[in-house]
Amino acid sequence: MSDVVETIRDFNTGRDPERLQRKYAAMRRDPFVFLRGTCHLFYAQLPEAKVFAKAPPTWVCGDLHLENFGSYKGDNRLVYFDLNDFDEAALAPCSWELIRLLTSVHLAAGSLGLSKAQARHLCANFLDAYRGALALGKARWIERDIAQGMVGDLLNDLRGRLRQHFLDGRTERKGKRRLIRLDGKRALPVTGRQREKVTALIGKICAKEANPGFYQVLDVARRIAGTGSLGVDRYSILVEGKGSPDGNYFLDLKEALPSSLVPQLQIEQPAWASEAARVVGVQQRMQAISPAFLRAVTMGKKSYVLRGLQPTEDRVALASWNGKLERLEGVLGAMGRLTAWSQLRSSGRQGSATADTLIAFAGKRRWPGQLLELAETCANQTRRDWKAYAKAYDQGAFPVDAA
Q1: Cα–Cα distance for residue pair 395/338, rounded to 1 Å
Q2: pTM of the prediction?
């Protein structure tokens, strides 16, 4: 137990205590949330197996799980469904990406009301879709007009969303001016110094834009979002956009930290200009279309990823499968294809395997069964770690001032 506790404490040292305590409390909830908050622990305990050592290297988001797929508006203003978290991105065996997603299926099974047999079936379904897409060797994408099933439901539900409604859910309106609602759920107050630094950064960025007035800062708050990144320096920024009060835009500014995968990898990594350059660079390679406003920036001695703020609710409501397993089969199939497409799209770049190598890998027969077995092993290890963590948490091992 002490190893798990100390590893988690050490990894989270230096984070914002207020948001870090939220992370610790969320991780106590169940093994799936714990998995989301301990990517570093997962890869440190990854079993030594040939299915990892012999897999071709690809660009991976690094933290692939059921909640890291979602919708977003691209820089072409169209809405896509894709992988959407690249904080842990690295050059790694392609099977590392797969094993984390498969493990997440087993760990989410309890909260989704899935039996062990159903979870195994969905894992196999994911791999079948992944292999099929990889074997074709052509990267595609999912957008609203071609999406089906629960993914199609999500994207079609977003069709009628008005910017005013989105803003009303996150701001307080005072006449023609909006301020970020500091509700303690999505946003917390900033200090005067934090506000000045963020405003100065955005001012520096907008000075190079064709329409600098778009980026005029109206308000800044510390953002609460995600699980693994809670406690990392992160801000919601309300800007003028296309005009107040209903044409305002939200930006997300998030500190980029080193990938948790790299210490466990023997594959040489490129020399990125910054951690944010790594995150943005890999994201641009793996996604069909980049999110609006995506870029790497620096503020002081730290690097940050700037992008349009993505609502946390823009994910498939997996719990709404309503006892119809084919609904989840459709989602896992889409996730499998998206994973393959992202690896094909970024193939042959700075050490990643070529498309031909990936196509050949898809045709090999033994590795899918090996991964399916290892996923259950990894899930059992995560459950043991979570039980040790939960016991320590209940005994007060993670107080607010632990940061």
Answers
A1: 42
A2: 0.94
